[in-house]
Design goal:
The chain is built from nine helices and 14 strands. It has about 325 residues and is α/β, with parallel strands linked by helices. It has one domain: Nitrilase/N-carbamoyl-D-aminoacid amidohydrolase (4-Layer Sandwich), CATH 3.60.110. The strands form three sheets. A six-stranded mixed beta sheet has the order 5-4-3-2-1-14. It has a six-stranded mixed beta sheet with strand order 6-7-8-9-12-13, with helices on one face. α1 links the parallel β1 and β2. The chain binds 4-methylsulfanyl-2-ureido-butyric acid. The site of 4-methylsulfanyl-2-ureido-butyric acid has 11 residues, from β8.
């Protein structure tokens, strides 16, 4: 019997700094309803879906910063979205800025949650690979201050058996790192859900920035193929407060093929039926991790941050 989940990437166009949560949630509900009308059982929203991409600004006033964060999920502003999704029996991934209290201390994370078709919160992920800087860079024309606003996630890359599949989550920059997919694939992930906000000037070097769309696709397709998983990737897109966020929301099959892609940088839903047996086929054959993966022969994997230094006698 074929196992499949009809899945939507619900791309969100620009959100202005002045837009209220209510305005954004209205847009998300409209996208959710459209996805449902097109048969979707699972909808993936972007990273930091509920506000403009605020790490582009250096704010110092704690009250101003807190306004971009959620202390509860669902909270008073987002409960409507959860209610509509439950009534329509649609599961979803939602990215948001989380203000958490742990061990009596406040922590800020770039977070996503996974909610099943009955409205139950299945899982939470906190972004591990935070890009950018922890302080403004005066020489740069645009800022990216995720390391200033967030701590690296402390939940690892868990996977969940839900909605008839094994699913994992990651957030934006995580999608560029092979470890992200591999850690989830080693736990059996069949679907990897990711939201992103990617400005087209993010390296500050035009040689690289001109390849932003290519690198987005390359990362998602390689991650899907090398790990035999569906990858559902959703952008916040368009000209947002002077920043050009790429779109290209896409659904990638375990074959590495892109089966659906957004054509705009506005609110847009793309839908595909994700056949989970396709993930199983690759994992039984070319990427049978138990039979073909050889970690004992890879040499020492050093658990350290940054590159491994070359051997002493290496030629320059
Ligand atoms: N949000 C996010 O992670 N964006 C990064 C680009 C910014 S790097 C300064 C990304 O990897 O798409």
């Amino acid at each position: 019997m074929t196992r499949s989940i009809i899945t939507a990437a619900a791309q969100v166009g620009p959100i202005a700094r002045a837009d209220s949560r209510a305005q954004v949630v209205d847009r998300l509900i409209a996208l959710l309803r459209e996805a449902h009308a097109r048969g979707a059982e699972l909808v993936v929203f972007p990273e930091l879906t509920l506000t403009t991409f605020f790490p582009r600004w250096h704010m110092t006033d704690p009250t101003e910063i807190s306004a971009f964060f959620e202390t509860a999920m669902p909270g008073p502003q987002t409960q409507r979205l959860f209610d509509v999704a439950r009534d329509l029996r649609v599961g979803f991934y939602l990215g948001y800025a989380e203000l958490a209290e742990e061990d009596g201390l406040q922590h800020r994370f770039n977070t996503s949650v996974l909610v099943d078709r009955a409205g139950k919160m299945v899982g939470k992920y906190r972004k591990i690979h935070l890009p950018g800087y922890d302080a403004p860079q005066p020489e740069r024309t645009s800022q990216h201050l995720e390391k200033y606003y967030f701590e690296p996630g402390n939940l690892g890359f868990p996977v969940w058996r839900t909605m008839g599949a094994v699913m994992g989550m990651c957030i934006c920059n995580d999608r560029r790192w092979p470890e992200t997919y591999r850690v989830m694939a080693l736990q059996g992930a069949e679907m990897i859900l990711v939201g992103y906000n990617t400005p087209d000037d993010h390296t500050g070097n035009f040689d690289f920035d001109s390849l932003t769309g290519f690198h987005n696709q390359l990362s998602l397709q390689a991650g899907a193929y090398q790990n035999s998983a569906w990858v559902v990737a959703t952008a916040k897109a368009g000209l947002e407060e002077g920043s050009r966020l790429i779109g290209q929301s896409m659904i990638v099959a375990p074959s590495g093929q892109v089966v659906a892609m957004a054509t705009s940088t506005s609110d847009e839903v793309v839908v595909a039926r994700c056949d989970l047996d396709m993930a199983a086929l690759y994992r039984r054959t070319i990427f049978d991790l138990a039979r073909h993966r050889e970690p004992q022969h890879y040499g020492l994997i050093v658990e350290r941050k940054g590159p491994v230094p070359p051997p002493e006698d290496a030629q320059p």
